[in-house]
Amino acid sequence: MADLDLTRDDQGFSPTFLEEDPFLFIKPYEYESLGIIPSDIPIGTLPAMRHPSSQIPSRWGGSVYGCGIFEMCYLMNPEELRFLQAISFERPDDIQRHYKKINELYTKIGLLIRYSSLGRPYYLIPVHLVSNSLTHVRAKVEEISKIVSFHKKKYTKEDLVIGALTHKDDLITQDLAIRFKEHRFLAIESFKDLSKLNEVLDLVILASDPFEIVEMEKFSHGGTQRLSKKKAEQYAMYLLWKLYGVIKPGGEIFIIAHHQLAKTDETAIVKFRTEHEAKSFVLFSHLFRTQKTYQSSKETMTVNISDLQHYLRGRYVEQEVISGLLKGRDVDQLTLEEFDSLPQRYFPLNTPAVPADQAMSWNKLLSVFFLKIFLKPFIFKPVRQEWESRFEAKGFSPRYMLTYLGQKRAVRKPVREMLKELSDSRLSGCPVEFVADYRDSFDYVITTLGVIEKLKKGNVEGIPELFSDRLTEPLENRKRRFPALNDVMKLSSRTPQLERIQDRINPDRIEGPRTSIFDNLEALTLFGFSPGEIRELLIIVLGHSRLGRIVSGKMTEKALQGLSTLAATYSPQQGLNLLRYCTLLTMAEMEASKGSLLSAEQLSELFQLYDSAATVIINKDADWNSLLDKEIASLGGTRNKVIRQLLKMIGHFEFLNNWHDLRSKGAMEKQAIADFDTFRLSRLENAIRLVSAVEQFEQRFLKTDPLLAPAYYRKILDIEFHGTGHLFERMESSLVLVLLWITLNIAKGEVINFNPLFSDLDPSNLDERVREIEYEARGISIEHLEIPLLNQLRDQLYAHGKS
């Protein structure tokens, strides 16, 4: 490939780029002080402190500077792969110990990165590709400069913060920083850099195709193979979503990348201007696995256009490989006939991980998050002139760069505004600040919608007919359907789309095992979910009313005052439809939370609550306080109501109506009640321990004053609990009483939240965490839990934040 003379004024280059050595070439006399071993520098390359990023393709695919390193992993054995993966490249002392082996492996896979004995990287620049590299860099810098200047004028902002997705020592960012000293350029090398970015960007620049960027070593997520087409699209979408999050409202994204051409059978008639050029092309076809086999010709050649495109990109091949093929002779010393008889090496011409139709792919991905300003091809004038001086192609115009400029899309309504509307609606079951982590997740929402979809299809297996008919009624009868249920039904049919979106905004769970709904709400809006659907997704996370929390023993029936007040704003029929809708969704949410079908006892509790709510909605003389007082009286007092509440908290619904009699039963009677099932028998014994623990605490701490016990039990009924389900249902019941006794006596407010005990916990570690809490609770001596001591503990906690 002919070199360009970069010192000519007619190239149109600014002097800044040429005043200094852009690569920062390392002189031989500097080798020793920098810890560089001369034998690590191949013939035909020059060591430098900077490199042209992904401009030079490797003969193995990807870039010689690390973009696409994982495509070349098949050149290494498993032991070598494990070695490289174990090295921490951010720790020079780690590299120092292993720099020789690292350099050996990089040589083996064709990378032009080396490490010195001081543990610092340096780069090898192929002499014959220096001018080509600088031309590509200059082309990108010129176009990016136009966009930066345009953005500055458009937004009348003097000092822009610009993110550039490239290596920190890439020539493009180095030159842009020199040109635009008034702006700040932030090099973003990895997803980690994006995540810890703590400022908003005015403009983001991608100097490579998004699909190539996600294949770059530092952007890849621990894989050792090239990404599949599906995975590459997921990671490219994830990259754009992350960029969307760091760009200011109305900010822009600019992409300039090599215009890729997929494999094709199309050909063009090419006439090379010189014999040297024709030989260079034939040599290229002997080194790489081209689409066709070519014979030298002084006239014209029929060339596959994708082969020509690869040739024009320029590929690095080690000098010893070329010398071996030519047997030490120069290209110009061989005749055309001798070239035809050269052996074939067939190095792979790996097409970068870019879809066949690059422009269509960009349109598809980018349109989700950005409004297109333009998407167009670009060819640098000096490149066109150089190509014209080297060859003439009939029927094909070689591609050079593809450019895209887009503006960040605005969402219809901010997340905070949507959440506030829900809070004011009195429909949501839980304040945002108390939502359990597992509920704020795509997995939970998808599971909940799966229950609705199952019921829509008439699959009510495992649900007693009495309850299944009432649950499916609003799904089958439009007159019994609250309007919002239509959005839920649409959502349930779109669960495959939700799963795809989750894989795109959290591929391979790179953000952790839980994909938050709250954190990704804007993404769902941008992916086309309607305001009504978004609202329903949020309510599923928060809970459709407090029905489920009451059934689970976390609060009393009085908490439904908000729902009945909301129902009163509708006609009686529509008010009951609202209640049916909440009951149906509550059942689905409880099943998703539990991970299994609800028991008949749980469903019975849910529909008893439904009947009470219906009474309050229809009968204007009924109210929740009087209903609660009647229930307490029918149960035999506040204490019995509390025990029933505690049994719900620990998930022992099967004993709600017979717990009084369990202790008086003999061993065989207990076996019979448990249906001779060991697990059910252990639950029965656990229920007995709960009742005994209540009596123990009452006898020890509440007998000194006749008013203490009623006050304590009333406090339990008035407190709003969070996070008890996944904790208490797994704990021994007597230890549950220890935790409740301490927290109830310490709490000054009306809320006790156990969710922080499980914050950001992998679901697989849930049981282990509960065992740890049980161990701690078991070590607490009840002898020391006197109320005066707990009062002192409370005062210290509220005064100092710790005790």
Task: Please estimate the helix content.
Answer: 40-55%
By DSSP, the count of extended strands is: 14
Mean pLDDT: 88
- Please list the strands of the largest sheet in the order they lie side by side: 5-4-6-7-12-10
Note the overall shape. Answer: elongated
Low-confidence stretches: 1-19
Radius of gyration in whole Å, from Cα? 35 Å
By secondary-structure content and strand pairing, the structural class works out as alpha/beta
Number of helices: 36
Largest sheet: 6 strands, mixed
Portion in beta strands: 5-15%
Distance between the termini: 75 Å
Summed up:
It contains 36 helices and 14 strands.
Polypeptide structure, described:
The protein is α/β, with parallel strands linked by helices. It has a six-stranded mixed beta sheet, with helices on both faces. Helix 6 (171-179) links the parallel strand 4 (161-165) and strand 5. Helix 17 runs antiparallel to helix 20 (495-505) and helix 19 (484-493) crosses helix 22 (531-542). 38% of the residues are buried.
Secondary-structure map:
Elements: H1 15-19, H2 31-34, E1 45-48, H3 78-86, H4 92-108, E2 113-115, E3 121-126, H5 130-155, E4 161-165, H6 171-179, E5 184-188, H7 191-195, E6 201-206, H8 210-213, H9 229-246, E7 247-258, E8 267-272, H10 275-287, E9 301-304, H11 305-313, H12 319-326, H13 336-340, H14 358-369, E10 370-378, H15 381-390, E11 391-394, E12 401-408, H16 415-425, H17 442-456, H18 465-476, H19 484-493, H20 495-505, H21 521-526, H22 531-542, H23 547-551, H24 561-567, H25 572-594, H26 600-618, H27 624-635, H28 638-649, H29 659-662, H30 667-673, H31 678-701, H32 708-718, E13 720-722, H33 725-728, H34 733-746, E14 751-753, H35 766-778, H36 787-800
Parallel strand pairs: 4-5, 4-6, 6-7, 13-14
Antiparallel strand pairs: 1-3, 2-3, 7-12, 8-9, 8-11, 10-12
Helix pairs in contact: 5-6, 17-19, 17-20, 17-25, 18-25, 19-22, 24-25, 25-26, 28-32, 31-34
